[in-house]
Amino acid sequence: MKAVSYDRFGGPEVLHYLDLPDPTPGAGQLLIQTIAVGVNFPDIRERLGVYNKAETRVGGVQLPQVGGLAVAGTVVATGPQTSVPVGSRVVALMKKGAYAQVAVAEEPLCAVVDEDADLRVLAGFAAQAACAHLLLQASTTLRTGESLLVHGAAGGVGGLAVQIAKVLGAKPIIGTASTSERREFVRALGADAAISYDEPGWTDQVLELTSGRGVDVLIESIGGEVFEQNFDALAPFGRYLLLGSSRGPGEPFAPRRLMTKSQALIGFYLPVFYDRPELIGNALRFLTDGLKTGQITSQVDEVLPLNQAAEAHRRLEGREVRGVIVLDPTIES
């Protein structure tokens, strides 16, 4: 099979398109002929060696590696103890190995999809949608009528969190974004309001939108000074979901302050959920159903051949992609 692998950390130039032996599915595994491969920021962080730094505390990766964590395609072989028939079309997540013409996935990390499903969309959004769904239905349970604040709501995970929350009946749903254009996009996704976290007094806007109470659930991806400000926007019994810190970790946090309003601070890291594969499978099925009914919308910005994975990484790192970028192993450049 053709695959994209790297044997050292660095820029996109370390990615090599080469021939590797086809993998063999083991017990509980499916062998998937990939039709579409999602490109995600964790792929880039792995390639850079970010996860191999001691301070990230997430274990790292072993080299050489075929990277990537999301595919969609056709099942061409199965291992023992599986129930999905050969010939089924599936979307799947995996810890590694997606950047290839053939990939192995654990069956519980897959969702069977209809013959007419858009595999490029599914592969492109699978990881982001899984994160959003797991945040709202596994790390916590967002209930009908509860309020939600999503930072970075114009981004991949944030935008899907807005749409999923809408399906779940949350209200109000408040998104933050950095520009007026991106805030308009957030409202178009279904948010009841979109604000800027860089404006003085933005937490007052949140309180006004929630009748002075604050939000029940908050998804944090900014960090820095915004981390501290968020507590002014969080309701009693509120759940604060920590997804990322694009501005850095900020000042040290005293955990006992959570006691004053019986609040919870919950960390999130997708690979941990591979130990609970049924939750990822549920998330993928939710995405599949939402796309089918039109409750979840999506945009594939560009499709490139698999052998242009390095270029896909360059464009994603350069913030040149509005939706998602997908690799197609079935086409040549």
How does this model look, in words?
With 333 residues, the chain is α/β, with parallel strands linked by helices. The model has no long low-confidence stretch (mean pLDDT 93). Strands 3, 5, 6, 7, 8, 15 and 16 form a seven-stranded mixed beta sheet that branches. A six-stranded parallel beta sheet has the order 11-10-9-12-13-14, with helices on both faces. Strands 2-1-4 form a three-stranded antiparallel beta sheet, with no helix packed on it. The chain has two domains: 2-117 and 299-328, Quinone Oxidoreductase, Chain A, domain 1 (Alpha-Beta Complex); 129-270, NAD(P)-binding Rossmann-like Domain (Rossmann fold), CATH 3.40.50.720. Helix 8 links the parallel strand 15 and strand 16 (324-328). 27% of the residues lie in helices and 25% in strands. It contains eight helices and 16 strands. Keywords: Acetylation, Cytoplasm, NADP, RNA-binding. InterPro entries: ADH-like_C (IPR013149), ADH-like_N (IPR013154), ER (IPR020843), GroES-like_sf (IPR011032), NAD(P)-bd_dom_sf (IPR036291), Quin_OxRdtase/zeta-crystal_CS (IPR002364), Zinc-ADH_QOR/CCCR (IPR051603). GO terms for molecular function: oxidoreductase activity; RNA binding; zinc ion binding.
